[in-house]
Every structure is written in structure tokens, then in C-alpha cells.
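Example protein as discussed:

>
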Amino acid sequence: MAQRILIIGAGGHGQVVADILLQAAANGGDCQPIGYLDDNPRRYGEQALGLPVFGPVAALASIPHDGIVIAIGDNRTRARLFAELTARGEQLVSAIHPSAIIAASVTIGPGTMICAGAIINPGSVIGANVILNTGCTIDHHNQIGDHAHIAPGVHTGGQVVIGAGTLIGIGAIVMPQRRVGAWSVVGAGALVQRDVGNEMIAIGVPARPFRERAIGE
């Protein structure tokens, strides 16, 4: 019997997660999305990809389900909800598109989203509640921290370390053996040739520190 999955967030990101789960189910996966929860009251009663928006996140306990995916793009919000919902005993499941290529030795934490066309090479460790977005490539023996977001078209070399909560922007490249610290942002199209510290914003080719991230940014 398929697991009934609720998607937290009914925006564009949530609909991508829904599509991933639907595609996976059509290819023999055991997770079936049943609908969304979203705190935007204008979405209540709507449907997206044939799935209903039941109501706010607070309604979670009233809807029978077997697992959830937190489909919110903002890393801090996603991390907060992950902590709150796991503390309540919710089962976080991963949404993995059937077109993703994942080496057998890769480990993937709970609640992670792996989009169409993503490639993860041997020895890599993907944390919990991570987004590996469309067409990104994660080379061998990477470490991707919890709640990170690797945006569409990002390429990382071998033995790269990405800290918890960090965003690597669309089309960026991280060279082999480089480290990007926790809760940092690498701008779209940047080329990371040197390590980036914690809580930093780095942009450009080559990427250079632009400024520290503001509190709560």
C-alpha cells in the first residue's frame, strides 16, 4: 500500500515536489501525494496538479497521512519547520525524481528533494531537508549540509563541502575540494575557486566575498 504524503507548501516549489512524487509513483514508487498544506488562506480549496490545498499547516494532525515533504524554498523557514515537525514525530520522506542519477554509495538524509536531471556521484553524503534542484551535478565525495539548496544547473567538483543552510545560486560552479560555510549564499553564475566562510555572500567570477549576511536574511 502506497504511503500517503502531504506536501507542506503549495507554491511553485510545492508543485515541483508534487510532480516528482507523481512521476515516482508512476514508475513504481511507494509514495503517493494526497495534497498540500499552506498558510496562505487564498490557496485554501484550490487544486494544483490535481491535488487539493487542504488548509494551513496547523491542520496537519487532522489529515490522515504517512509522511510529509517540506516544499518551501527559503532555507531558514524550511529548517525551522523541519525542526518543529520532526519534534512532533512527523515522518519526513524524500522526493526523488525518477530521472535523477544517484550512485549506489550515496547517502541521502530524510526530507530531501532531488529534482529532474540531478546527478550525484559516488561517495557523496547529502544531508536532511536538502534541495538538489533541476539539472545540478554533485561530483564524488561531496558533503552537502542539512537544509542546503543547490540551485538549478549548479556543478560541484569532487570533495566539495557545502555547509548547512547554504544556497548555491543558479548556474554556479564550485571547484574541487573547496568549502562553502554554513548559511552562506553563492550568487548565480559565480565560480568558487577559494573557500567561502560561514554567513557570507559571495558573488562573481571568480567569486569574492561581497558582505556578511544580515541576521535573519
Remarks:
- Residues 12-26 form the longest helix (15 residues).
- The two ends are 42 Å apart (CA to CA).
- Helices lie at 12-26, 75-87.
- Residues 16 and 136 are 15 Å apart (CA to CA).
